[in-house]
Specification:
By secondary structure, this protein is of the alpha/beta class. The protein is built from 14 helices and 18 strands. α12 runs antiparallel to α13.
Length: 490
């Protein structure tokens, strides 16, 4: 295996990056590792790669042996836009927002598009019986018909146990797979870990080409109990392997907080399926994104000064989702011709420095590109602002202002939910009514009506309704999908 790929390094890796990658790999693959991933063969590859790359002369000789394509110019870019042109010296906390734009500068080449391995993890518990399972079966067959012949599909079903219904198979005979899907029946309880863990193992066991895009689609309509932490561990392992988890919640009874975190840990997103057309739309969008993926994953690593905190991270396109603020932050895939845009909220506790410029954060964005000889690209990033003695009122750029405005609505509904959960019904109700007024001012009458009805339900029953809670949360999230002149496709 190629040395840079063994250590998951870019071609222009620095000596410090080589050492850090080596020690990470040793911890993971050493035969005595306690993480269950000890692999003597892989450990030997790691040792050999490190011995070559850490030695300047041996590395230069090795580089000359690689094909020219290994040294091609990077096609990824990272841009930063800010909510303010300056920050000010103060003993008081201040916030600043940064909008990261990740882009691919290369034009799409159909010959370079990698195939995809899509693994569907389907909840077949008793609550899925009837219309829900019928809807899923029909749309699974829609997915089968629209995947490319070079793509691979696998299907895992679960209730209180899991089984591989369709092992990884190329789609040369879709009719046979469709007949298997139509035979799925419902029964049993919901234990998501069973399905998720087996799905992850399906990816690991499949001996297909390493350049596949990897997508795991979890479909469920219920809660899982007692195995959430184990599910998160699977999601973290999936992120390392470049597997994106997309969680689809059908109906109103599923745990959206759990599925949000589960998907964000791997760079995926959770989707609310309230009607058949929502599932149709997801399938269509997924097929479209598979046909234009350049990088199958991108992740952000930042170093912050002691007085700076990253409060919040939210991906606003292409797939809207809050992101888990643990480094590395999984930003998701990167598509040809379309930015991945993420808004970051930083809190600066105190700023007394006499320096004319303040570094708020510095770090790197890593991309994993299946079509490249050396799949890892890395872009350095530095988030910084000039420092002034006084605060000056200024106009926030349109793209940042739009994102901040929509983000404030999303976080307001989060606050209302937390207040209701803590028993502060009055504050939660007031915030819902304020949300309704904001929705009404923007012309979103349906959302405004839902928020007012939920405020009334809250007063009467001292809790959110399952339906209203998800309608408001995912309705507010969908506002990020509204057209904006500075957040459009390139």
């Amino acid at each position: 295996m190629e040395h840079y790929s063994v250590l998951k390094l870019p071609f222009d890796a620095t000596p410090a990056e080589i050492r850090a990658a080596y020690f990470d790999a040793v911890r993971k693959y050493h035969p005595d590792a306690q993480n269950g991933e000890g692999d003597g063969g892989r450990f030997i590859e790691v040792q050999q790669a490190y011995e070559v790359l850490v030695d300047g002369k041996r590395r230069a000789a090795y580089d000359r042996s690689l094909p020219e394509s290994a040294q091609e110019t990077s096609a990824t870019q990272v841009g930063v836009r800010y909510s303010r042109t300056t920050i000010h010296r103060s003993g008081e906390p201040q916030l600043i927002y940064a909008l990261l734009d990740l882009s691919c500068t290369r034009k799409i080449d159909p010959n370079e598009l990698p195939p995809a391995h899509v693994c569907v993890i389907l909840d077949r518990s008793s609550s899925m019986r009837g219309e829900r399972l019928d809807m899923v079966r029909a749309n699974l067959n829609r997915l089968i018909r629209k995947l490319r012949s070079s793509d691979v599909l696998s299907i895992v079903t679960f209730s209180d146990r899991a089984e591989v219904l369709v092992p990884p198979v190329a789609l040369s005979d879709p009719a046979r797979i469709e007949s298997v899907v139509m035979g799925i029946s419902a029964g049993g309880a919901t234990e998501i870990f069973q399905g998720l863990d087996l799905g992850f193992e399906v990816f690991k066991r499949y001996a297909g080409r390493s350049n596949f895009l990897k997508h795991l689609i979890l479909i469920t309509d219920g809660h899982t109990y007692g195995d959430e932490e184990r599910c998160y561990e699977v999601a973290e392992r999936a992120a390392v392997e470049g597997i994106s988890i997309h969680a689809l919640g059908i109906g109103y009874e599923w745990n959206d907080t759990f599925l949000d975190r589960l998907s964000s840990l791997s760079g995926g997103n959770s989707v609310y399926i309230s009607a058949a057309e929502d599932l149709v739309q997801f399938i269509e969008q997924k097929i479209q994104s598979l046909s234009v993926n350049y990088a199958r994953k991108s992740e952000l690593v930042l170093e912050l000064p002691e007085h700076v905190t990253l409060n919040y991270a939210f991906r606003i396109q292409p797939n809207v989702s809050p992101l888990e603020v643990n480094f590395p932050i999984q930003l998701g895939p990167l598509e040809y011709g379309r930015n991945t845009s993420v808004i970051l909220e930083f809190k600066i506790d105190q700023l007394q420095s006499v320096e004319p410029e303040q570094i708020i954060a510095s770090g790197r964005v890593y991309f994993e590109i299946p079509s490249k000889t050396i799949p890892i690209e890395r872009q350095f990033i530095e988030i910084k602002r000039p420092v002034r003695n006084t605060w000056n009122k200024e106009k926030t750029p349109t793209a940042i202002l739009t994102a901040m405005s929509r983000l404030s609505l999303y976080r307001l509904q989060e606050k209302a939910r937390k207040e209701a959960g803590a028993g502060d019904i009055e504050s939660s109700s007031l915030h819902l009514k304020y949300l309704a007024s904001r929705f009404m001012a923007q012309g979103n009458q349906d959302l405004a009506r839902t928020a007012l009805m939920e405020a009334d339900h809250l007063q009467k029953h001292q809790r959110f309704s399952d339906e209203g809670e998800k309608d408001i949360k995912y309705g507010t999230r969908s506002l990020f999908l509204l057209p904006d002149p500075e957040l459009k496709k390139l």
